[in-house]
Amino acid sequence: MRKEQREANRAHLKRWPLIITTSILLIIAIATTAMLANTQNVDVDATVVNVRQGPGLSYGVEGQVTHGTQLAIIDKQNSWYKVRMPGNRVGWVASWLVNNNEATTGAAKSGVTTAAVNVRASSTESASKLGSLKAGAAIKVVYQEGAWSQIIYDGTAAWISSKYVKLSGTSTTVSTSDQAVASASAAAAANLTVKTKRTANLRHTAGINGSVAKELPANTSLAVVGESGDWYEVKTSDGTTGYIASWVVSTPSNGASTATSTSLAEATIVLDPGHGGSDTGALSTTDKYEKTYTLKTAEAIRSALAAAGANVVMTRSNDSFVSLAKRPKIAHQVKADAFISIHFDSTPDTNEASGHTVYYYSSKKDISLARNLNVALKGVGTPSRGIEFGDFEVLRDNKQPSVLLEMGYINDDTDFSKIQTTAYQQKVANDVVNGLRSYFESGSR
Ligand SMILES: [Zn+2]
Fold first, then answer.
1. Is 121 helix (H, G, I), strand (E, B) or coil?
2. 75 — alpha (psi -120 to 50), left (phi > 0) or beta?
């Protein structure tokens, strides 16, 4: 690059920070407005609740609140609420430790109009007119923004000039459906866009049971046109509309944070089919390879987890050799919420032992995962040998919660007659999903 050109480029670069900062502030202001339109309060249910710097147990504790304290919710991420505490401090609390009854009703303020007033679709004089209200009409004010008050009008969210609003000083509630209307209109008015954090499903209806309309690659921008519970109703650039889970997208205000997943659907799970390629693993009495069944079983688990909404990463997805050292590294790279290695045991002589074992290495980070999976696998079809300490490299070098499952003895004919069936593989898969679900929901990580 020539010198003048370099300097010209540098001059360009100097202007960027200001533009970026301004844009970010603007976006945050818009996003915050959308959230405030839907202000909800919660009461602290537990005796003492830690307030953390971010939405997850891995974030530092910045304070505590005690039973009965009222907190205003200003954001929600995974199962965490971003709250404003007395004294105007902001932090995150786990949603399961606070009483969120009120979050389903939504508070509004009662009031009356002081004069005949036009009702508009958004908060400007140029917005289309939806109708009008007579002086003295009773109104429920959901939100006030500058000179405008948002009300529910004829089943939709609408705006009137705050000049003609007299609040009575008493609070009221708006129904869940009206609240959804209000928040949807706020999102649309704010031109809220979100971006997929990973490959994500666009569904025909809100909820993970909704049929998939389209699979979206990571970093797809979507225009938010509405909200339904924890789901956004969105529109893609090609005009396809559908629903997407709010936790698989980042919004301008939460995109920077790396959330700790608090339920299976939000989790990244690394599955590690043992052996592969030149490393065949142990042999059945009929000389079948362990590596074949570790992969088949992991594939079954992968499908079951994907159906449950989890993000699944495989250390290998075909018959290739992957070193032991590389396997935990994959877990680190993707910040796995759980790493599960799949193997089948063997004994020096055939037909000497039977059953499955759940191995852990760390009694701190791994044991809860091991316990939950062990319980879930109890009825899988091979006898349970319980949980055991195991000094395996994939566990020892793993910084993420990890376990190694020996799902039966491959050189035991009774065990192998099960191991090789898709029915057993499917049973393992379902049990692992259930075990992970209880692990993530127990909150005892
Ligand atoms: Zn093995």
1. coil
2. beta
Residue 407 Cα to ligand 1 midpoint, Å, equals 10
Distance 309 CA to ligand 1 centre (A): 28
- Assess contact for 343 and 406: CB atoms under 8 A: yes
Domain ranges of the chain: 40-104, 107-188, 192-250, 264-442
CA separation for the pair 272, 256 (Å, rounded): 29
**CATH entry 3.20.20.140 includes domain 40-104:** no
Q: What is the mean pLDDT of each run of 10 residues along the chain (445 residues)?
A: 46 51 52 43 68 68 73 73 72 67 51 92 78 92 75 82 86 68 56 79 82 88 76 87 83 38 71 97 97 98 86 92 95 89 97 97 95 96 97 96 98 98 97 94 65
> How many whole angstroms from 422 Cα to the centroid of ligand 1?
19
3-state SS assignment for residue 225? strand
Q: How far apart are CA 365 and CA 348, in angstroms?
A: 32
The domain made up of 107-188 is a member of CATH 2.40.160.90: no
